[in-house]
Design brief:
Elements: E1 4-9, H1 16-28, E2 31-37, H2 51-64, E3 72-78, H3 84-95, E4 100-103, H4 106-112, E5 118-121, H5 130-138, H6 149-157, H7 160-165
Parallel strand pairs: 1-2, 1-4, 2-3, 4-5
Helix pairs in contact: 2-6
Length: 166
């Protein structure tokens, strides 16, 4: 039986820190599931990219690194739920046979603490976070070095820079 790892995040946008985590995950996980949170969130500064746009960012970034199709990686939507424990149960039902949850979010960690899965906490890369990147885009500051080239392409293609500034 292969070791299944679930990496949960909003990926608004996907950045080099996320990519570093995935490069590490493929070394220790037989199957990697990337759970993209809030697939139906209304557009806002905190959620400027749709589920499909974020999925595209991640897929292209992984392809550029030659991680697809070498490794067993799936991308799925993780719908939001008002109750944390119900949300955690939904995640585990959707993915099935999860051995380890990978997250940098304390709230996510708390949701899974009594769910009989291992939790691998991820350290944030200094200076790289989706919040910092969104602020940099909005303020016309340099942000492109913090994300994979594929993400820059997707953000430009979908009009994300203008979306963030409006």
């Amino acid at each position: 039986m292969s070791h299944t790892c679930l990496f949960i995040g909003r990926f608004q946008p996907f950045h080099k820190g996320h990519l570093m985590v995935l490069k590490g995950m493929v070394k220790v996980c037989g199957r990697v599931v990337i759970g993209i949170e809030n697939p139906n969130a209304p557009f806002s500064f905190e959620n400027p990219f749709s589920f499909e746009e974020r999925k595209e960012m991640i897929q292209r970034s992984l392809q550029d690194e030659d991680l697809i199709p070498k490794f067993n990686i799936d991308l799925i939507a993780i719908p939001d739920h008002a109750l944390d424990k119900t949300w955690a149960d939904q995640c585990l039902q959707t993915v099935q046979d999860v051995d380890t949850i990978w997250t940098g979010n304390e709230d996510v960690k708390k949701c899974f603490e009594d769910k009989n899965v291992k939790i691998q906490m991820i350290k944030e890369v200094p200076g790289i976070s989706s919040t910092i990147i969104r602020e940099a885009i909005k303020n016309s500051e340099d942000w492109k070095k913090k994300v994979p080239d594929a993400v820059v392409q997707v953000i430009v293609e979908v009009g994300g820079v203008q979306r963030m500034r409006d």
